[in-house]
Amino acid sequence: MNRSTSTTTRWLSATALLGIGALALAGCGRSDSPAEPAASAGAAIDDSPAEGTIDIWAMGNEGEVLDELAAQFEEQNPDATVNVTAVPWDGAHDRIATAIAGGQTPDVTMLGTTWVGEFASTGAFEPTPEGVVDPSAFFEGSQGTTEVDGVSYGVPWYVDTRVLYYRTDMAEKAGLEAPETWDDLTAFAQAMVDEGAGSGLSLPPGGLDSSLYLLPFVWQAGGDVLTDDGSDFAFDTDAWKTALEYYNSFFTDGLSENVRLETGEIEQKFIDGDVAAFYSGPFHVSLLKEQGGADFEDDFAVAMVPGDQSRTSFTGGGNLAVFDDADNRDAAWKFVRWLSQPETQVQWYGISTDLPSVQSAFDDPVFADDPYTSVFGEQLADAKAPPAIPTWAQISAVIDQEIEQVTRGDKSVDDALASIQQQAEAIGTGS
């Protein structure tokens, strides 16, 4: 598998496939049983060299290439050995759940960001102890993916976010620059359709993962999934109505074709000019360069997502968590700490193309001087993730279905949001 394909698979797995797998642990509805008590953090981690064997599970491409980086840790800690087990994404969720149930866990595991809430509720992870990391070193949205009820379980390891990919040549022909506001985005999409594009902005019209495209519009409109105090769902609010109406306008106004384009399809349509803009993560830069050829590189660019009250985007990625019953707990946390150092994360990008979770790493010229990665670094300063609740997979599946009902014209926005609110309340937060 080449690096571009691996990165694509990782993004799709971390946002979509993992969410489906979460249903197995989250259950099918509101639970009357209280969640397991949270584990307590152990002793602070000192600065002495790590010793002993550290077992870590890592998914997808990360599991395939982590040995290369781990060898450097072993050189700096000669009495330590890192054993990496590569776990396929499609079986990772169930494997972790089975290991927890059977008490046969490694020391450290990589987690999709949407898994933290459900697994932390089992009491399987140790909260991050003192001396490991400074939480403020990470992007706020990424750090938030490790936290459940104000307690951090592990650290963000790498991050992904979505930005706007757009055809610069088509925009220049229409006399437009990268859109910054919703009004700009609508005008941009209309101009691109007038220039012959089938979709001025390609959006999924519902189905799997479409909730993760709608959520940024909700955040940009000042809304969120939960109320401010976290006590209830907030789908029946003005912000959600504003966001879903705006999202749907791209279909009702003919600015986005009512066709779901998957990775593998959207690239060629973008290159051909049939799609003028779309939202995606960093992996698409290399895909477009490879598929479009040298001449195409000057015809597209990336920009921060346009916004309303904010320009907030979605953030995902992978976290690292240490199990509460880890055999080599101290060394495990020392390895996690080392992986979180800015210089290590810059090296890791060169190996894996994973974007750093530590903000200061983006000061390195490899990011700061690059017209693509620098934009992703800027976007990560205004990016959020869904709430870390055990039932998020079930909730997002409901949203996916209701989006499709709206874009097909089978249900009004008001009715769809009322349905989401009702179903979400029946499902509960799982906490």
Automatic annotation (TrEMBL):
Entry keyword set: Signal, Transport
Protein's UniProt keywords contain Nucleotide-binding: no
Span of the signal peptide: 1-26
Coiled-coil annotated spans: none
InterPro entries linked: SBP
Presence of keyword Protein transport: no
Bilayer-spanning residue ranges: none
Superkingdom of this protein's organism: Bacteria
UniProt similarity note: Belongs to the bacterial solute-binding protein 1 family.
PANTHER family, alphabetized: MALTOSE-BINDING PERIPLASMIC PROTEIN, MALTOSE_MALTODEXTRIN-BINDING PERIPLASMIC PROTEIN
Protein name: Sugar ABC transporter substrate-binding protein
Organism: Microbacterium fluvii
